[in-house]
UniProtKB/TrEMBL annotation:
Organism per entry: Phaedon cochleariae (Mustard beetle)
GO cellular component: cytoplasm
Family to which this protein belongs: Belongs to the short-chain dehydrogenases/reductases (SDR) family.
Single GO molecular function: oxidoreductase activity, acting on the CH-OH group of donors, NAD or NADP as acceptor
The keyword 4Fe-4S appears for this protein: no
Family matches, as Gene3D superfamilies: NAD(P)-binding Rossmann-like Domain
Protein name: Uncharacterized protein
Sorted UniProt keywords: Oxidoreductase
Signal peptide segment: none
Length: 304
């Protein structure tokens, strides 16, 4: 998805706590500790049914390939581009076996279409185990359409999963960008959308909701990735100045292949706790613990 600057610099500045491939965090007032304890596997992709929005290219398609390499039972790709969808499915079926993948035309910004699609999936497969929200648009000149796709689309899919697959032990991986953790001055709409996705994932993934619905929800903020998603994106910012700023920032940002994002998704399927937030940048997977504002504030006034 979208990286803006070096994540390490930003997270340190923002007092986030980072752990590479670990659940144990380093507190600003404590001693750094390494965590070598093996993680608990919560789900293996083998024999599981997966749904990927935006699954016809980029990280979504790479994730479909990785899941099938791990013996997933079936992968359904949701997107709007029909020719590209059939091309993607044909490639996956040729590589992994007949009827391992299907394409479903679906506009995630349309709630009725999403609800109808997931109802059909439930009728066909009874349950869906893995849901990856990878559909995305980065064009701030069309910010309303971008908002509907990135944020509203993610909400629509999450609510459909909560309704259709309650108590199914499913896992939802919501893809966002680094601007969801550190706002970008050159991409304000994107920053708002991705911050919303992070908080949506934390809220729906809260233990209280997990106990009610039995669905794990996780956020993955993806750094600069070599896909069509970022092609000429500097020309699609709100102003020319913002575009130039973004272009300069991208020159020094860590870059990765789509496969790195896909491998990160598989790691989260296997072990990410519900409500957790993760980053994959420069092919590194990092667990992020969001700072509690109650532990970091300055009292300015006391009103009576």
């Amino acid at each position: 998805m979208i990286p803006i600057r070096s994540i390490a610099k930003h997270l340190i500045r923002s007092k986030f706590k980072i752990v590479l491939n670990s659940y144990r965090t380093t507190h600003s007032h404590g001693t750094k500790q390494a965590c070598n304890k093996p993680y608990t596997t919560l789900m293996e992709p083998a024999c599981k049914v997966a749904v990927i929005t935006g699954g016809t290219e980029g990280i979504g398609f790479a994730t479909a390939h990785q899941l099938l390499c791990c013996k997933a039972k079936h992968v359904a790709l949701l997107d709007q581009d029909i020719p590209k969808g059939f091309e993607a499915v044909n490639h996956l079926n040729c590589s992994h076996g007949k009827n391992k993948a299907t394409f479903i035309k679906c506009d995630v910004s349309n709630k009725e279409a999403v609800d109808d699609t997931f109802l059909k999936l439930k009728n066909e497969f009874e349950t869906v185990d893995i849901i990856v929200n990878a559909a995305g648009l980065w064009d701030e000149t069309k910010w309303q359409q971008e908002l509907q796709t990135n944020l509203v689309g993610t909400i629509n899919v999450n609510l459909a999963v909560q309704q259709c697959f309650e108590s199914s032990n499913a896992v939802v991986i919501n893809l966002a960008g680094l601007s969801g953790l550190q706002p970008s001055s050159c991409s304000p709409i994107n920053s708002a959308e991705y911050a919303g996705i992070v908080r949506l994932s934390q809220s729906l993934g809260h233990q209280a909701n997990f106990k009610r619905k039995g669905v794990r929800v996780v956020a993955l903020c993806v750094g600069l990735t070599s896909t069509n998603f970022i092609k000429d994106v500097h020309l699609r910012m709100l102003t020319a100045e913002m575009g130039k700023e973004l272009q300069e920032e991208m020159k020094t940002a860590l870059c990765q292949k789509a496969e790195a994002g896909a491998r990160a998704v598989l790691e989260l399927v296997r072990r990410a706790k519900t409500g957790s937030v993760w980053v994959v940048e420069g092919s590194r997977l990092l667990h992020v613990e969001m700072a509690d504002w109650r532990k970091s504030f300055t009292l300015e006034s006391q009103f009576t």
